[in-house]
Structure formats: C-alpha cells, structure tokens
Amino acid sequence: MNRVFLKTYGCQMNERDSEAVAFKLQSRGYEIVQNEELADVVLLNTCSVRDQAEQKAIGKAGHLTKRKKKNQPFLFGIIGCMAQNRGEELLDLLPDLDLVIGTQKFHRIPEYLDQITSNEDYRPSRILDVAEEESSQDKINEHLETKEKKVTAFVSIMQGCNMKCSFCIVPKTRGKERYRSISSIVDEVEKLVERGVREVTLLGQIVNAYGRGSLPRLNGKSPFVQLLEKLNEIEGLYRIRFTSPHPTSFGDDLIESYKTLPKLCEYAHLPMQSGSDKILKSMKRPYSRKRFLEISKKLRLTHPDMRLSTDLILGFPGETEQDYLLTKSAFKEAGFEMAFIFKYSERSGTQAVGLGDSVSKETKEKRNQELLKLLERQSYSANLLSLNRKFEVLVEGKAKKGHNMMLGRTRCNRRVVFEGSQKSTGQLKNVLIKDVTSTTLSGSIFQK
User: Fold this and answer.
1) Mean of per-residue pLDDT scores for the chain
2) 390-445: which CATH number, 2.40.10, 2.40.50, 1.10.287, 2.30.30?
3) How many CA atoms lie within 13 A of 314 on its CB side?
C-alpha cells in the first residue's frame, strides 16, 4: 500500500503544496505514481476559491468511492483548502473517505498514512486534522527531484492572509499571515539553483505583503523588497517573479525595484477585481479605481516591455450595468494583456453570502464573454508589437506540438515557440519573433 497518486486543483500554491507533500511521502518510502489506476492511495489537494473547483473535487471523490467499494485496500483522502473549510462535513458526505487534512498539516500526511496502512485487516480508522499548527509555513520547503531538467520552480514564502475581502474564503482556509525568514528562503533558492533551476516564482496569498508587522523596514524598504534584493544577488539565478500580490502592497519601493533589480522580470500581476468604486467598497478592497490605475501606470513606466495581468470578478452582488462598464473601461485603460476572469459564485463562510446573488447567470455570462473578447484583442495588439524584435527567452523544454520545437518565455511572461534542441533547456536564447497570436509568440533563434 505504498503507491500514491496526487491530484491537484486550483492555484500555484496548491501545486507547490502537492510537490512538498510528494517529497515528504517519497522520503518516507512511498512511491509517487503518475497513473491513478496503479495507486494504492489517491490524495485530492483541493481548492475552495470557487464553487466549481469544489464540485469537481466532490465529483472525483464520488468516483473514488465506487472504486473503494470494489477494492477495500484502496485508500483516498481530501487535503488542502476544501478539507480546511468543510472538515467533518466531508466525512459525513463521503462515508468511505479515509483522510481529511487541512492546510497547516500537509507535513503530517506521511505519518497519518503510516497509521492507516499499518492496520492489517484493511479497515482503517478515519483521520481528520484541520487544526492550526505553529510554524507550518516552514514545513513547505522541499522540492522533488525529477528525471527531466527543471528550469523553473515555485517557492512559498508565507502562508495565510490578513485581508478581509468579502468574497474570499482564503483567510478561513489558510489562516492568518505567517512568514518564513529571509535566510531560509534564500537557502531554498540557492539549493534549487544548484540543481539547475534558473527562474523562481515566489508564492503567497498576499505575497508582496510578506513580513508586514513582523519584519522591520530597512532604509525605507519593505521586507518583501529586502527579500527580492537578496535573491537578486544569487549567482546562477536568472529570473525572479512573484504571485499573487495585492494592489495596496505595491509601494513605491517595490515599483522602483523593477528598475533597480536586473533579475526581477518586467511582468506584474495586479488583481483589480472591479473597476467600480461602489463594488470595490462592497468587496472590501481598500483601494479606489483611481488609485489602482495610478499603480498600473507607475508599473508601465518602469520598463517599455512591462506586461500586466489581473483578476476580475463579474456579477458581484449589486453590480449594475454601469458598474460593469466602469470595470470594462478600467480594463482598457490599464491595458491588461493577461487576465483571469471569473463569474461570481457564492462561497459559504464569506461575508458576501449575506449580499445575495442578484446578478443573473445570463448577465454574468454575457459580461464574461465580452471581457474575454476584449482581453483577446488587447493581448493580440500587445503581441503585434513584438514582431521582428529579438527577445531573451528562457528555454523551459519541448513544446507540446511540432518536431524539434521548443518552448520558453520572455522576461515579460509571453510564451515563445521556436525550433531548437533539448540541449538548450535552461539556457537563455535570443529569439527573433516572426509570428504572433493572442497567446503565443513564434520565432527562430537569432544568430549574431
């Protein structure tokens, strides 16, 4: 009973958590398999941000229940955000479920599986653990070694969120903000670089708020900027990115870092959520439309190739046509080239539930389609500016399609496909862009 399959739903933080869980299981003697049918144990690392993600996980758990009824030694568990949010309710909903493990207990999963699998008659007790644990943020720092060369890596620098956005379940599922030390993060990145990683993406629920109220500002610089400066000094590291930030923590010191730190890529994720001050207030987002657009303009001015992405929620309770048009115009003014656009759905345990769900599904879908088309136009227009230009591309590996085609990214986070050799994986190549779509650049290696 030592073969484990991990299925991950949701954000990059969940991907990172799953990798750390896999590392701990492997270290304990478990085998991580990529084929679910070969697994003795299936763990679903879940998301609670949107109802659709929870429903997918519940549906998957239902299929696993059917398999379990045919094969008693088979085990399955739900871990992560949905486990934290719904806890014992999941055990009632899914009587055959073996494990429910919350977001601060990932590192204990191997010992819990040991307890269950040591039961020789294969009638294990069920384990529920969604309690808080001090210093849990320091337990997610190991990375799996893979056969394929790994060029990029996620690095979790904190856990939790202290914001009070009315639509968001994250403070409930992830707890209060807890920060790792700068030295431990630097040590983790140095080890990754020794293994061939050339780009890291720093992760946190409010990543640019790292250290607030806990670590001191030095020379007018926030703890997050101090961390970026330390990482910028690491030899062999080519690029630094981060997600997901909050507009209120984009201070001038962080914006200035895009000019002063060569390894900080000219790309920023700037979640707007809405362009209407009325809706922003209802969402409990502590900034105005005007302030948000000021930040986006300041970021654009740091580099001519700066690219911005955002998050939007359409159909929030009380959103009128005028509110939507304000969002649409702000989206145009900021010129977003990338975006994650969501239709509002109620999340139990959030303050917004008390506001009702006053916008019809048809209206949400109409607004969603309009914004997606606008995004496609803006992204394509931005990519057209890349034609016949050379870009530094970090080669990540083989492209999914095409003979001898490789995939990489520009510093401004645009996907690039070009003909090349797998030996170039992990290298920086100058690529001349010859064709574009709204999502991808195509070109050839530029020979000096």
Assistant:
1) 93
2) 2.40.50
3) 27
d(CA 224, CA 373): 35
> Residue 121's CB: how many other CB atoms inside 10 A?
6
Q: Can you tell me whether residue 204 is helix, strand or coil?
A: coil
Q: Select from 3.80.30.20, 1.10.3720.10, 3.40.630.30, 3.40.50.10170 the CATH code of 136-313.
A: 3.80.30.20
Model confidence pLDDT, tens digit, residues 19-70: 999 999 999 999 999 999 889 999 999 998 877 888 899 999 988 988 888 8
Q: Is the pTM of this model over 0.90?
A: yes
Which letter does DSSP use for residue 212 in this model?
Answer: T
DSSP string of 299-365, one letter each residue:
HHHH-TT-EEEEEEEES-TT--HHHHHHHHHHHHHHT-SEEEEEE----TTSGGGGG---S-HHHHH
Tokens 């959520």 locate to 273
CB 170 within 8 A of CB 205: yes
Neighbours of 215 (CB within 10 A): 16
Decide: 206 and 249 in contact? Cβ < 8 Å. Answer: yes
The tokens describing 136, both together, are 């849990």
Q: How far apart, in Å, are the Cα atoms of 361 and each of 153, 311, 358, 365?
A: 38, 19, 9, 6
Within a 13 Å sphere around the CA of 98, how many CA atoms are in the beta-carbon half? 26
Q: How far apart are CA 416 and CA 410, in angstroms?
A: 7
Question: What is d(CA 219, CA 24) in angstroms, rounded to the nearest whole number?
Answer: 39
As separate numbers, helices (DSSP H) first and strands (DSSP E) second, the chain gives 13, 19
